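Hi all, posting the design record for the shared folder.

TITLE: backbone redesign
STEP: 1 of 1
STRUCTURE INPUT:
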């Protein structure tokens, strides 16, 4: 059965200041804010709240509540993303990063891989020039200057192919992305998967930089400083695919176990820097070194970086990544040199 979602695009267009308007009719602003940003699933909303929102937007409940894509996953072959923050087909993915953390390289790599998988890739060029934009442009099948231009192109494609759209955060700030999404819904076009990036890096300082997201990719300056790429934080990155029945139990259990280990590993790094390794218990030392190996394994060579790294890009199937992670966490690689796990695909 398809998931149901709040039609945020419609709400944003018809009621620009939704929290203030909600308060004026007796709704709790925090509840409405959490509903529109996805923090509260629509299934948990009270009927009277949804009815009041429909009245505010002057629309029917059928217009306010729309069907999603059922959480079907797009497998990228990038193990860190597929395991910890899966991309939901037809959903919205937000990148949170400072400049030079590699967010545009990651988007360019996703475009490259998905074009091989017969997706159409569309990029709305930012109005401001930004370092790394060419990595996306080179892998986009169609580069346009506005969302209106992107809409015309996607409309011509119709339902023949899946579409991935990339745009920058200014389209969220202006509200253009919501109008665009509403036009797509009204045209009964196949839902597209949207990637929102922030080349300026302002999103890092905002609590909700993009509004509701299906997948959040949080980049990490500390990983960049140690040249660990992709510099995506596996602990802080999330996906709604991991909150329901969209992934199997092995996937769910593995990513939760890995997050727990990596969270403790990061704590131990601080303790070691402050007090030295000798202060750790034997169990903590074991946890730390497994975290080192896990972190190393989550690096990956990218196809679009081959001219720079002279290393062939690697695709890692999700099931192989899950098996490899469990082998590392269960101690089967405790004698392996962590450097041998850096920038590989799957374990041999």
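Okay, here is what came back for every position:
SEQUENCE:
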């Amino acid at each position: 059965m398809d998931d149901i979602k709040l039609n945020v695009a419609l709400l944003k267009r018809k009621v620009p200041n939704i929290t203030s308007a909600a308060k004026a009719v007796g709704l709790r602003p925090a509840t409405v804010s959490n509903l529109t940003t996805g923090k509260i699933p629509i299934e948990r909303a009270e009927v009277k709240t949804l009815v009041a929102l429909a009245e505010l937007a002057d629309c029917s409940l059928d217009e306010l509540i729309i069907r999603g894509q059922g959480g079907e996953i797009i497998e990228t072959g990038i193990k860190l993303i597929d395991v910890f923050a899966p991309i939901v087909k037809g959903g919205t993915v937000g990148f949170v990063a400072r400049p030079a953390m590699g967010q545009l390289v990651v988007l360019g790599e996703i475009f490259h891989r998905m074009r091989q998988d017969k997706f159409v890739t569309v990029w709305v060029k930012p109005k401001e020039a930004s370092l790394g934009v060419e990595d996306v442009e080179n892998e986009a099948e169609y580069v346009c200057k506005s969302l209106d231009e992107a809409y015309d192109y996607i409309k011509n494609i119709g339902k023949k192919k899946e579409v991935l759209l990339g745009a920058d955060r200014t389209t969220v700030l202006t509200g253009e992305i919501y109008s665009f999404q509403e036009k797509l819904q009204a045209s009964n076009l196949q839902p597209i998967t949207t990637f929102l990036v922030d080349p300026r890096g302002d999103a890092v300082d905002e609590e909700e930089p993009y509004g509701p997201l299906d997948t959040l990719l949080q980049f990490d300056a500390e990983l960049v400083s140690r040249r660990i790429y992709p510099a995506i934080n596996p602990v802080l990155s999330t996906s709604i695919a991991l909150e329901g029945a969209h992934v199997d139990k092995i996937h769910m259990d593995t990513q939760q176990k890995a997050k727990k280990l990596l969270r403790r590993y990061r704590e131990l790094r601080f303790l070691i820097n402050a007090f030295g390794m000798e202060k750790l218990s034997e169990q903590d030392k074991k946890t730390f070194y497994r975290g080192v190996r896990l972190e190393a394994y989550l690096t990956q060579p990218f196809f679009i970086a081959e001219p720079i790294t002279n290393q062939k890009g690697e695709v890692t199937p999700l099931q192989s990544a899950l098996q490899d992670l469990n082998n590392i966490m269960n101690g089967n690689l405790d004698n392996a040199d962590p450097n041998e796990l850096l920038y590989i695909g799957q374990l041999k």
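COMMENT: Residues 8 and 194 are 15 Å apart (CA to CA).
Let me know if anyone wants the other runs.
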